[in-house]
Amino acid sequence: MYKCPICHQALIKGLHSFNCINQHNFDISKHGYVNLLKRNSKHQGDDSTLVKSRIAFLKQDYYLSLKQHLNTLLAQHKPQVLVDLACGSGYYTKDVPSTITIGIDLSKDAIQYACKQDKKNQYIIASIFDVPLMDHCADVITTIFAPSANEEIIRLLKQDGLYIRVDPGSHHLLQLKETLYEEVFLNPIKQIQHPRLTLKNTIEVKETITLNQEDLLHLFNMTPYRYKTKVESIKKLQALNTLEVTIHFMIYIYQKN
Ligand SMILES: C[S@@+](CC[C@H](N)C(=O)[O-])C[C@H]1O[C@@H](n2cnc3c(N)ncnc32)[C@H](O)[C@@H]1O
What are φ and ψ of residue 217, in 5° steps? Predict the structure, then answer.
């Protein structure tokens, strides 16, 4: 199942480390994750402020309906092996109904937190564009609010395996954007175009949540808006006691053909 990031031979999980036939050894951290990022890699995942905000926000279960839709969908397919690419802090990974679940993310902070919350599943620090898993090992791959590593997904999926992808819907966080910016656009909707991935079904999840000031700021800090908002607009947000916000998700179910 696991693949050595150096020589690409099978990597076997031992008590304290993952090891391959060529004596490449990777320690299992005290929390249970393994770092299989290429040693010269300069990639980094989300920084700790972003990860902390996302953890604090998700803890309040504002996105529970999305998680429930995903788990209902997965329960129908009963995957043997599920790989969650860009799993972040493991909010969606933790409870998926699969026999073996592996979460992959670049962010050490996020993976560390995921491991502390979830002793059942295996978490790995690695890039989703260079996944240390063998070809055709996965029945289902999920990617939730993250880039789509299409070629790796095709390589990892078994024939007829499913790729379940979640993107923001057109109205996701509209009122937050209206508070921050004078001109607001709806989020663009784009589906994956790949000759080996056929879109089988789309599920739309849309509801309104009411956020208190603290959670509103956590939400702001976990979005890309954090990097492109003027100080005056942030002050406007900080002055709000509460805000009703639309959450809108698109779940796309693709099958590898
Ligand atoms: C918006 S977060 C979503 C996390 C999680 N799926 C969730 O919804 O809670 C995007 C995640 O993608 C990760 N990420 C970005 N680029 C990556 C890459 N090339 N390889 C692995 N993880 C990556 C970030 O570290 C971050 O945890």
Answer: -70, -35
Cα separations in angstroms, 5 against 34, 97, 102, 147, 149: 12, 28, 16, 21, 17
Terminal Cα-to-Cα distance of the chain (whole angstroms): 22
- What region does 86 belong to: left with phi over 0, alpha with psi -120 to 50, or beta? left
Average pLDDT estimate for 102-119 = 96
Mean pLDDT of 166-192: 96
| Å from CA of 22 to ligand 1 middle | 31
Distance (angstroms) between ligand 1 centre and the Cα of 106 equals: 7
Tell me if 144 CB under 6 Å of ligand 1: yes
104 band by pLDDT with thresholds 50, 70 and 90:
very high
Q: Choose between 45 and 237: higher pLDDT.
A: 237
- Which residue, 27, 23, 30, is CA-closest to 6? 23
Q: Which domains does the chain have, with CATH numbers?
A: 35-256 (3.40.50.150)
Atom 27 (ligand 1) nearest CA: 88
Is the CB of 146 inside a 6 Å radius of any atom of ligand 1? yes
Place of tokens 């902390």: 52
Give the number of residues written for the chain: 257
Q: Is the CB of 101 under 6 A from ligand 1?
A: no
DSSP, collapsed to helix, strand or coil, labels residue 84 as: strand
* Span from the CA of 89 to the centroid of ligand 1 (angstroms): 9
